[in-house]
Specification:
This protein has about 230 residues and is α+β, with helices and mostly antiparallel strands. The protein has helices at about 1-10, 75-90, 100-110, 120-130, 195-205, and strands spanning about 20, 30-40, 45-50, 55-60, 65, 70, 135-140, 150-155, 170-175, 175-180, 190-195, 210-215, 220-225. The chain contains five helices and 13 strands. Strands 1, 2, 3, 4, 5 and 6 form a six-stranded antiparallel sheet that branches.
C-alpha cells in the first residue's frame, strides 16, 4: 500500500525542477514521510502520515510555510490540490515567505511578550496529558487573533502532538471531564463528571510548570507567553 501511494504520486504529479527524495519504510504506527520533492532553494513539498491518511504541505528549511491539507484517499481532487502547490513552489511563491519562527519572533517583539515555557516543558506536559482519556483542551496560537470559545479533546486534535510548541500562547485544561454513559436506545445518556484537577496539578508540579486557575472556565491555564 505504501509503495502504491509513492508510485501514484510519482507518476501523477509534474515535479518541475523538484527532486524526488528516497522515503523510509513505515515504522509501526508512527506517521512518516510518504512522499517528498525538494528544490535547490531548500523548499520542499511533503506528504506525511500513512498510506491511507495524512497531510501535505510546503516546507522551508524544514518549517511548514503553507496551509496543511489532509488526505484520506488520493483522488483527482487531491492530485489537483497537490499539483497546484507544486506549481506555486516552481513559480517562486515561497522563496521569500517568512518561516514560522520569523513570524513568532515578530509577534513577540511587537506585543512585547516574554516566554514562560520552553520546548522541553511543552513536550513533557503534552506527553502526559495525552495519556488522559477524553481530556478536553483549548489553546490559542500566537499567529491567530481570535480566541477559541469551545473546548475539544486531545484525541480529536490531529495536530496537537506534533504542533510547533513555540506557537502556543496559552493552553487551558479543564478541572473536570464530562463523560456520557449509554443507558439504552430510548433513554437519555447518563452524564457524569470526573474530577482531574489534582491529577493535572500533579503533572504541572512534577515538571515545575507555572499555571493559574481560571474560575470562569474552571480550568488550569499554562501560558507560553505573557
Amino acid at each position: 500500500m505504501e509503495q502504491n501511494l509513492q508510485k501514484t504520486l510519482l507518476t501523477s504529479l509534474n515535479h518541475h525542477s523538484g527532486q524526488s527524495q528516497p522515503v523510509s519504510s513505515q515504522q509501526g504506527d508512527q506517521s512518516s514521510i510518504q512522499f517528498q520533492l525538494v528544490w535547490k532553494s531548500g523548499i520542499a513539498f511533503t506528504v506525511k502520515g500513512w498510506p491511507h491518511f495524512g497531510w501535505f504541505y510546503v516546507e522551508k528549511d524544514k518549517q511548514i510555510v503553507s496551509s496543511a491539507f489532509d488526505y484520506r484517499k488520493i483522488d483527482e481532487r487531491t492530485i489537483s490540490v497537490m499539483q497546484h502547490m507544486i506549481d506555486e513552489i516552481e513559480a517562486g511563491k515561497y522563496n521569500h515567505k517568512k518561516k514560522p519562527k520569523d513570524k513568532i519572533r515578530d509577534i513577540i517583539q511587537a506585543r512585547q511578550l516574554a516566554p514562560c515555557m520552553n520546548n522541553t516543558k511543552w513536550s513533557e506536559l503534552i506527553g502526559e496529558i495525552s495519556k488522559i482519556e477524553a481530556l478536553p483542551i483549548k489553546y490559542k496560537k500566537l499567529t491567530v487573533d481570535i480566541e477559541p470559545s469551545e473546548f475539544w479533546t486531545v484525541d480529536g486534535d490531529e495536530f496537537f502532538g506534533s504542533m510547533e510548541s513555540a506557537l502556543i500562547e496559552w493552553l487551558k485544561i479543564p478541572c473536570v471531564i464530562g463523560k456520557s454513559e449509554y443507558q439504552g436506545q430510548l433513554i437519555p445518556p447518563k452524564i457524569s463528571e470526573v474530577k482531574v484537577r489534582a491529577e493535572i496539578e500533579s503533572i504541572l508540579k512534577r515538571y515545575s510548570i507555572n499555571y493559574e486557575y481560571d474560575e470562569m472556565d474552571n480550568s488550569l491555564v499554562v501560558y507560553g507567553y505573557r
